[in-house]
Amino acid sequence: MVRLVCYFVAGGGPNMGEGKRGKRLMRKRAICRKAQRRHSHFYQRCAHWSFSPPHGEAEPIRWHRERWMLAGTALLITILSGFLIPAWATAMRPVPVAPAHTLLPLALPKLPPPTVDRSSFEAWHVVHVQPGQTLSDIFQDQGLSLADLHQVVQATDDPTPLRMIRPGDEFDFLVGPGGVLKGFRFDKDETTRTVVRFADAKPVVTTQQRELVQREHVAHGVIRDSLFGAASKAGMSDAMVVKLADVFKYDIDFIKDIRSGDSFTVIYNDVYRDGRYLHEGDIVAAEFVNQGKRYTAYRFKQADGNVGWFSEDGRPLRKSLMRTPVAFTRISSRFTMARKHPILGYTRAHKGVDYAAPKGTPIHAAGDGTIVYRGWERGYGNFVLIKHNATYSTAYGHMSRFASGEHVGTHVRQGEVIGYVGMTGLATGPHLHYEVRIDGHQVNPLTVTMPKPQPLPATQLAKFESTVVKPQLARLKMLDKRYQFARADTAAAPASND
After folding, report:
1. What is the DSSP letter of 382?
2. In this structure, CATH architecture of domain 330-443
């Protein structure tokens, strides 16, 4: 800082005596004295502002308030310069010019006119068939006449779905002003819907494809009271329980063999259409532990298009011969070498098993084979004999009637209906007399070792193991571990005092 002090020169050198210079000096001194007198209060307050002390003083520099103010001002000016100069430089920079582009016309193909699905916004009325309803009842409930029904039947190429309706079937009606039928649609099958429109004089019939979606589910249960009870707790429907029993029916007797503590794990799917549940699907993979023995089943489509269930080693679960080819209520007589005949009154061998069942119950072929006898046989009544291979054959007696379309020489497949339960011949009640014969000799169907079915061919077996067994077996094992941990956690939890 500069000390504002006027220094007066007492005398001058040899040159100071000159007239003009002396006058200027005298004038300056006079101005200085006048300023000091007029602003004496300012000079008294700022007389100490100076960076250099007066002559003869050696006092160190001390930062007073005025010095801090000047230093702060200088610092603020420096900082503002650091911001303003780059901004000014950026503002002076020339604006970049975008490169020029050339637009070339391109001929595009014309799009087809959009198709409008009128059914998406038309007021179709959906009706589901109730038990006991007929199609004519449904038409009358919609305010339509039998003439309208006749018109619909005549317009369709295949009216079979209209003649054989079942509870749950869906029919849609489009009725215009005055109760005039404008449209009718129904399901030809699960994936095809037939639409009949009466907008013009001649009906217009079209078909629509409907996509099916399969949703997979997993169920696990431990049997305490019954299989159906455990399956219901696991979220399975009764229809799926029947399918589970049907898969393992060759290895497990679900009437006699089920025990408390048996468990099952099932991977299955349900079928949905248009976001709504349609019906239960199929079992994909299953595991059943019965009396400590583990059974597995995997669904696989073979090269010939047939779908079946196979064990882990690729053998069909379906045995070569069925032990029980009829849905029976009880075993009325077992295989024995000494039984008193209920009609003849004397003891003789009973070389078969009698399955009591209501009259008319279907009887199935125990295995693939050829019918070698079909007719009346003494004591057996209506009798059928099927030869399965060079060693095994099966016999069926006391039928009420035979299945139509079959005769000697007809090839039948396992499970195919060959007749119906009756009491022809020497019988006291309706039942099926069933025999298994090895080289022509009767053996006990309940204890005989049935021939093992042949495994899949090598090429199909490799595909079965890689695409079905490995991924599904891994899932079943993972689910078993999860449920084991859950059971362990439940067992370890402290008992409630409530």
Report:
1. E
2. Distorted Sandwich (2.70)
